[in-house]
């Protein structure tokens, strides 16, 4: 496991981070004890970065919408806090259906709840969650009241770094040059089907921001089980995915292996978040990033996926 410093922060972070959306039940059912053991296993394998959100859960999940934070807090409580980099989010209260509130008081209240659920007295990075949702109707409040709240929380010592998480390249191109942020989380833009993050990297570096890339499996699209029920994809695009999966099966190569290897292959990206609920899957992913990349196979897969390259999936009406 390699470790990199995020931008001009002093936060040193593992190249592979544990995204806790899956243990919230966002992709399938979760076995609580196994989820907690998977968190421990991630730390044992060298992962020091854990990310979550108060919106990573379904109404049917064990603890409702806050299931991810609650389980992650239970998983991390026995580990040494100074050896962990922890991030969560605020502004998005629920995912299915989306509910958002980026007002100053709502952000303060959200972070207080997160601190309790995560069983900690500070959070390393706090991202305003999905600031682009509903065609940007929350953007002004997020970038004014929301960021003001995060800056005050930083002054109070409750968070170490201020950031935003976003899918929209258009919004990111407006926010990154014009706002002072410590970090930015970009999801679904450095994968086997999308490389738009490459155009943002020089702008992020110019501002001294830290970069967190997320969703190497394109939020479940690049997996053998296929996308979750909330994924905004049509049948035509699913045919492209299925042809690619058939090619992988014929060549006895898991598409997940190629996806995570590709996502971690760029040295300009300090960390990439992935998500899982079981130790066996966790260990596979850590093993895969330590193996050499079959570049020829990567190129073959990218050719199969070319019809959906850099397609703008409308996550703004769904979930990340």
| Major sheet: arrangement of strands | 3-4-5-8-9-10-11-12
**Structural class per helix/strand content?**
alpha/beta
Number of E-state strands:
12
- The CATH superfamily is identified as NADP-dependent oxidoreductase domain
Number of helices: 11
Average of the residue pLDDT scores: 95
Shape: globular
Termini separation:
26 Å
Taken in chain order, the helices and strands follow as EEEHEHEEEHEHHEHEHEHHEHH
Beta-sheet strand percentage?
Answer: 15-25%
CATH architecture: Alpha-Beta Barrel
Radius of gyration based on Cα positions = 18 Å
CATH class: Alpha Beta
What is the CATH topology descriptor? TIM Barrel
Report on the biggest sheet: 8 strands, parallel, barrel
Number of structurally distinct domains = 1
What features would you describe in this structure?
The radius of gyration is 18 Å and the shape is globular. An 8-stranded parallel barrel has the order 3-4-5-8-9-10-11-12, surrounded by 5 helices. A two-stranded antiparallel sheet has the order 1-2. Strand 1 and strand 2 form a beta hairpin. It is α/β, with parallel strands linked by helices and 320 residues long. Helix content is 39%, strand content 17%. The protein has helices at 32-44, 67-76, 104-118, 133-136, 139-155, 169-178, 197-206, 235-250, 255-263, 279-289, 295-304; strands at 3-5, 12-14, 16-19, 49-51, 85-90, 92-94, 99-100, 123-129, 159-166, 183-187, 210-214, 272-275. It has 11 helices and 12 strands. The longest helix has 17 residues, at 139-155. The model has no long low-confidence stretch (mean pLDDT 95). The protein has one domain (3-317): TIM Barrel (Alpha-Beta Barrel), CATH 3.20.20.
